Amino acid sequence: MLIVIIRTAIIFLVLLIIMRLMGKRQIGEMQPFELVITLLIAELACIPMADVSIPLLYGVIAVVTIFVLHEIMTLLDLKFKPLKSLISGKPSVVINKNGIDDYQLKRNNLDVSDLIESLRSAGYFSLDSIDYALYEANGTFSALPKENYEQMQTSLPLVIIDNGKYDRKNLEITGLDEAFFNSLLKDQGIKSEKKVLVLTADGEGKLYLQQKNEKFRTLNVEYPGGKTW
What we know:
Elements: H1 2-22, H2 32-50, H3 56-79, H4 81-88, E1 92-96, E2 99-100, H5 102-107, H6 112-121, E3 130-135, E4 141-145, E5 158-162, E6 165-166, H7 168-174, H8 178-187, E7 196-201, E8 206-211, E9 217-220
Antiparallel strand pairs: 1-2, 1-3, 3-4, 5-6, 5-7, 7-8, 8-9
Helix pairs in contact: 1-2, 1-3, 2-3, 3-4
């Protein structure tokens, strides 16, 4: 019986560490230790029910051990603030007054495309319409828009450059080519698209440009031939 308890505790701790290392992409809307407990209880409950060669008592002991570990983790989470951050993680601010924080994105195994998808799901389409955005410890997304953000979202922005690479599909949608955007980058003192963290363009000629490790800037340009989308 003691061996079952020890083995269950070891598996629990290993899974908790792995879930913390995997970042917020994998968590959903639960704390890491809550997700681990959910996975373990589901598995532990099925094994003794499906395999009659395993004593039912072993399954009960394992589930009770998980419950006790849950209570311990909850107590630590509430009573000891340093351990709370270690066990459950803490919010990550991925957009601030300077723009996108690429370091925070990478810490959580996310990229610019993931961030933009989260923004669209929250009802925000322009990166420059947001003052702050963050991923909570449980993986949910929150954003603080600018006061007049609705007036800044009159056309759908498309990602042209993502982490130093052109998005070919979106280039086709715009009907523009790399030469046009390379010329714009040179006008802004940027020698190569590889130095660009993100470049978005909307149908009315508004661009959001951010170099890696620098503050973002917005531009208003006129597309060749008066193109719009």
